[in-house]
User: What shape does this take?
Amino acid sequence: MNVSLFITCLADAVYPSSVGRSTVELLERLGCNVSFPKKQTCCGQPAFNSGFHKEAQTVARHMITTFEEEEWVVTPSGSCATMIHEYPKLFPEDDVWREKAEKLAAKTYELTQFIVDVLEIEDVGATFHGSVTYHSSCHMTRLLGVKEAPFRLLKHVSGLTLTELPYKEHCCGFGGTFSVKMMPISEQMVDEKVQHIEETGASCLVGSDLGCLMNIGGRIERTGKPVEVRHIAEILNSREETVS
Amino acid sequence: MSIRISNDPFFDRVGKGIENTFMRSAVSGAQDRLEGRKAASTAELGTWEDWRDHAEEIRQHTLDNLDFYLQQFAENAAAQGGHVFFAETKEEANEYIQSVIQRKEAKKVVKAKSMVTEEIGMNEAIRDIGCEVIESDLGEWILQLDDHDPPSHIVVPALHKNKEQIRETFREKRAYDKSSDPQELGRFAREQLRQDFLSADVGITGCNFAVAESGSVSLVTNEGNARMVTALPKTQISVMGMERIVPTWEELDVLVSMLCRSAVGQKLTSYVTGLTPSEAADEHAPEEFHIVIVDNGRSKILGTKYQSALQCIRCAACINVCPVYRHVGGHSYGSIYPGPIGAVLTPLLEGYENNKELPFASSLCAACTDACPVKIPLHELLIEHRKDIVEHEGGSGFGEKLAMQGFAYAASHPKIFQLGGKSAGPVVDKLGSKEGGGPGPMKLWTQIRTLPSQKGDRFRDWFEERERRNRRGNDS
Assistant: This one.
């Protein structure tokens, strides 16, 4: 199966290579040929959610063109996948681009959704020794409608103990530019999230969106809590000998 | 009071909300209780999503044919002796209500809970003509006693107060000397209110739904006070938002079910009252029944991309799941309509000038959209507001226009985008973990959190290097 990776700007330009590397290695291990179109940039969500729709449209056109010829597009982010699914709305009066946008949306999947729904695999053969709790990110859960896939995959990871996060579907307070525009409110939200994570006693927080993880992880680090933060691709790509 | 409850700037209100730890624990506790009850009572139906589809369809159909149903309602109410008045503005509504009160030479009005009367500032208008207004809903009565503290929730107006604070208000204003036990507090309020019910000249209610086919007003309550308001005074006024209508009793049945379950997690509230004007002499019915239908900006929303906001049945399910409301409370919104629906509705009814921040006071987590029993796409409407503010209102005031234009240029020109990513790296590496480190938005980010540090370990480089290696491997 030919999979084209949309890496997302956070995994590309902000985080070290580990999340992207894990995504590629995991998909390859599951039998996919992974390509990486170098022209790709950002999904445009910062502009879209801030009300700059002309700007979002410019970015969307670029991304649609970049991935036009690809068979499947997979991204390690529920939120960025959701944004691509919103593209058709950016072209209400432009049939040609709307149709192209619909085509891209139809073949774009979040990573765990792709593994469970398209590859129909739940046991990826991973081993991760540790107690883990999982934050269900908002866009992935409520807008993309992917609730169960990450749990199904984590359940089969050998050595991993999963403790349910209380209020797991409550927003962590990231919300893109919300995190800075409404910083005082975002701070209260992320503090409550961190408190719930601590209550689980888990030593590792896992999520499928680097936006949320950057927010929660950044707060955890600033406040000196002893919790490690990992993207689900890193967990699913872990093996007995190489805990990446 | 009218729709606006505070003239303080947005971030001052938010700051006050966040500092108020009493209020916040009351709010988060109430959210958890209400949301838990709602989840149980909707799960029990088994087919909640079908119910939502059906309710949405009813609301959309009614709004698409609002002129027809309003006329049908008004004709049916008038044919049975009801006095129907269409008020285009809040001033027109208040003047009409004042004129009824003056004609009756009323000295005291007792009223049931109603958001639209708050919206139009009816109580002040009545006091202005020298008539007393008594709130009879327990929550509203508490707020009225507490020097007209504004409501912070559309179903549970005194949600921000705990029982100790309520006891204190009762003691200070009404010489209450008993405990903060809710039963005892409730009994005291009932005793106090009983006299007002008996001596009031006019009773005023809101209207949950008006039934077009019979010209009736229906009220959904738990305390029974609305029955007293509508049974004892000789003159009765119901005030309704013009969108608050259902075609027949059959649709009323569906929407009342949705309202009760979504608002308080009950199959039905203790009282669901249907009031139809009647000319027949009946000692248990009011002699005069006035119905004031309020537009106050609603008709301007009809036919626009915001029309779905008028589907709202005021259940507060969106408020009960909102993480922003949870931490800042209702008063932070500066409007009698708080939470997600308030952030959508307030700028529509009152304009953007005082409400520009409201559409941005959401992380767009979409919990509201998911919770809404009539499927208003609340988070999408917030984005629509943002779009209108950016395109027509001179921007959000967050100074992001240049940044967003720059972003769009870079994100459609890969080389520049990559260059931007690369050059930001060292800045983040150096300042990302420093409190308040970095320029612009990064400074706001790092005030409370660190940023991940890439230190040159970029995915793109890894992938390219691997491809090169693979090509070399294949060549040899």
The first helix of chain B runs from residue 10 to 19.
